[in-house]
Structures are given as C-alpha cells and as structure tokens.
Design a protein that fits this description.
The protein is mainly α and about 90 residues long. It contains 4 helices and 2 strands, in the order ββαααα. A hairpin with a 4-residue loop joins β1 and β2. α1 crosses α3. The N and C termini lie far apart (about 50 Å).
Length: about 90
C-alpha cells in the first residue's frame, strides 16, 4: 500500500507521506512543505483530502484546520521558452 501515488503532480506516495508525518509529527502545512504533495499543477485539488486523512490517522491530536492550506488553481501553464522571448 505504501507505493500508491497520492499526489500525481509531484509523484508522492502514500508510504512517503505516512513516514514523513510519523517522523516529524507534521501539521498539514509542514507535510506539504516537506514532501511537495499538493504543490503541483492541480494545487492540491486531487490529493488534499487524502493528505488530511493521512494526518488524522497518524496524529489525531493535530486539528485538521490548524493552519489551513489554500487551493490555488493554475491560471495557465507557460513554458520557459515563452517567458524568455523578447517582446
């Protein structure tokens, strides 16, 4: 079960998330910063509920909304070539 990919954008597995949460006793924000889960193109829209459930199972004492994570959808993807073009 540890090799199931939870965050598809950043390719973070369930095992990595659970091990990090247990080792560091993370809040949602800490887990996101340590693993990059929820920081991909979707902005956490697909993996956020799973992240919250993992945190609740590892450390039920931490309130899930202690430091709320925001959802930030991308406006549109831009390539580096487009950014570097002279205008």
């Amino acid at each position: 079960m540890g090799d199931i990919v939870i965050c598809r954008c950043e390719e973070v597995t369930y095992g990595h998330l659970q091990a990090t949460a247990e080792e560091h006793n993370c809040t949602a924000r800490e887990l996101k910063l340590r693993t990059r889960a929820g920081m991909g193109f979707c902005g956490g829209r697909t993996c956020r509920p799973s992240l919250d459930r993992i945190l609740e199972s590892v450390n039920p004492a931490i309130a899930p909304g202690e430091i709320p994570l925001k959802y930030q959808p991308p406006i549109r993807p831009v390539t580096f070539g487009t950014v570097g073009e002279n205008q």
